[in-house]
Amino acid sequence: MHSWEGDPRQQQPTPDFGNPGPGSELRPDRSIDPRAGGWQVLFAIAAGILLAVLFATGKASAAWEEIEHILGLQGKPQPASPGILSQHEIESLDRQTPQAQAQLLLGRAINGYEGAGSEIAERVSGWRGRLKLNSQLNSLITTALNANDLRVRAAGIEVDLAALNIQKDPQIMEILAQQVESGTRQQRVWALWELGLLGNRGVEPQRAAQVLIGQLHDPNQGVRHWAVEGLAYLGTDETIEPLLQTFHDDSSSMVRERAACSLAQSGMLSREQRRSVVPQLLNFAEDTSLDGQTHGWVYQALRDITGQNLPSEPGAWRDWYSRSER
Predict the structure, then answer these.
(1) What's residue 200's pLDDT?
(2) pTM of the model
(3) Within-domain flag for 115
(4) Structural domain contains residue 235
(5) Helix ranges, 205-313 (H)
């Protein structure tokens, strides 16, 4: 099964620009062995001297505990500095290209820096048509769309629309709707994706839902898949019932899985909206018409939505839900 965080944009017909991923140029060259030659000897001598000094002063144990504390991967987060966009970065933004601005600010938003979202909101209209969807920006958008913070996902949507040069205009919504009906398969896929993003940002969301829901019964599996993705990112109450129906009824296991992911974790549904589908998922768990694979996704969705790690048994989930609703 695909990861619940699997980004639908990765499956889009996105051109491959062949650029390295973000940060790849900073990774150490594993072909260089720091232990080769005299490094082994120097390292051993330095380590021996350090340990001798520490043991002589009676501080070896305390020093090791401190190192372990600092380097440990468990426990509460340890911020390197206050999570605020620095004044230095803000002042330098106007001297940077739109591409550099978008990449810096989206990276900061992903990492929870206060002020990054407001800077994106202020600047994104000026980026439209001036961004290149290279591998670094595409990777940042992907990461943002998979963030646990819906505001970060919204920032990813804004930057994606700017990179795709899509105007927030009701007329664009109608052009995309026509493309869904009469375009090539690739054009339809892109239009379904863009409809969901535009609708989420407040451009004719009901019209977007109407078009996307209308494609859920298309004979082409790929079109149905992207209609599901569009609905997931539209994220309105109107999208919930069609996603549930698709999860239950679609003939394609891939489309059913994507509908389950959309209800459980991916897309723009809020925690409250996701929680509202639990009663129907409990019904699905007891539905003998569903196959074992779909039942497995039902329980995965329940665990993701509720945070409960209960066995794959309808009774256990019914008991928990009845207690939680008291």
Answers:
(1) 98
(2) 0.79
(3) yes
(4) yes
(5) 205-214, 221-234, 240-249, 253-264, 271-275, 278-285, 292-306
